[in-house]
Amino acid sequence: MVRRPRVAPKLASAVLALALGNMADAGTLRKIWDFDSAVILGAQSPGIQLGVFALGFSRDGRRIAAVIGRSRREESVLILDSRAPDAHFVKLDVNPQIREQEPGAGSQRIEWSLSGRQVILAKWLVQIPTGATCTLPAFLQRYRFTGDTQIVGYQVEPARLLFLDSECHITAAREMANEQHVHTYDASAERGLLLLNENGISHYTITEVSVTVIDVNGKQILRALRNWPASDALIVNPKFADSGKAFCGMRGDLWHRTIACFTVDAGQALNVTNGWNDPDVRTALGSPRIVISDYTKKLDWLDMVWYPGLLRKRVVWDFQSGKEIVRWKPKTQKVLAQPYRFDIAPDGEYIVEGGAGVVSLYKIEP
Q: What CA–CA distances, in Å, run from 30 to 11, 48, 66, 108, 348?
């Protein structure tokens, strides 16, 4: 007889003080359930703890992909029902060797298709109904969906964007100018848009940074912002939010970042929030909420440079109202020496967080 994971009951009347850290007066996180993956993946060995390497909500918020294992080379993927994980879960026969890294613009993250029938896990494209997989080209980076089944990846040399179908076949290419290098990019599958953060390079020196929004199907540029690196208006690492109607990026000195959000169609500035240390930003796909992870900094006494230290806090910020919704400080996973992994639901109302083999769902409440 297979024992089901034990799930904490919903608390309809009491708001739990989140065990992850101190909460802001602005709001709280109410725990909905815990899911202990050790029941499915096997008991944890003494001294070897299960880690949660990545988490990702599907675009309708009904499912959660969780990458869990004893090491990066020994990972399993569970697809959980966000409403009843103990009753409905699927274990995929794939070892993606994925690891979300914070802070880091090139971090590997879980990417769901619009229909929820496919999910990208590092180089693997997995068909959820059947478990069938195909391998995406290894020379491409940071895959994103630009439609229900169309995928985009970036090739460094030669510099170009390649488009693929749901069977991992290359269907089209977009060549980049010789002097341009894509630093980061994002896609809105809902609107078929691509958001490029490009660096102009001359004689091995960055001469210009631009943010370009491209309509993939219409093959036209909707928005182009170009700035010199010294400009205070410089936007880096932009990401789509609110169903592709807005994007948010960072500007300013690494240890004194400002996060700013804009409308895609008009380029109108919405709101800004200041005073962040080397932040990592995660946007809610279908709402005007983002999660900002803020870090301490440490001095490397040998090279005399600052580098990211411990995670100080995570904050849910609403860029329509300009208000902080909730904040918390996650625990650290010993097996990863990284904070607990997390994702924000597309509607911006829930946080999923995982570490030490346990995945938990929280409701954001005022």
A: 8, 30, 20, 28, 14
Burial class (CB within 10 angstroms; exposed 0-12, middle 13-18, buried 19+) of 225: middle
Q: Has residue 152 got a pLDDT over 90?
A: yes
Q: Give the up-direction half-sphere exposure of residue 343: CA atoms within 13 A in the CB hemisphere.
A: 25
pLDDT for the residue numbered 47: 60
Task: Report pLDDT for 299.
Answer: 81
CA 67 – CA 153 distance, rounded (Å): 22
What pLDDT does 186 receive? 93
pLDDT in tens, 262-298: 999 988 899 999 999 999 999 999 999 999 999 998 8
Return d(Cα 319, Cα 289) in angstroms, integer. Answer: 6
User: Minimal CA–CA distance to 241: which of 259, 267, 263?
Assistant: 263
Q: For residue 22, what pLDDT band results from cuts at 50, 70 and 90?
A: very low
CA distance 134 to 27: 43
Please state, in angstroms and rounded to a whole number, the distance separating the CA atoms of residues 298 and 291: 23
Q: Which two tokens stand for residue 165?
A: 């179908």
Query: Can you say whether residue 13 is alpha, beta or left, with left for phi > 0 and alpha for psi between -120 and 50 degrees?
Result: alpha
In this structure, are residues 239 and 287 in contact, taking their beta carbons and an 8 Å threshold? no
Bridge partners of residue 352, in order along the sequence = 343, 361
Q: What is residue 10's predicted lDDT score, i.e. its pLDDT?
A: 39
- Whether the CB-CB separation of 361 and 82 falls below 8 Å is answered with yes
The full set of domain ranges for the chain reads: 119-175
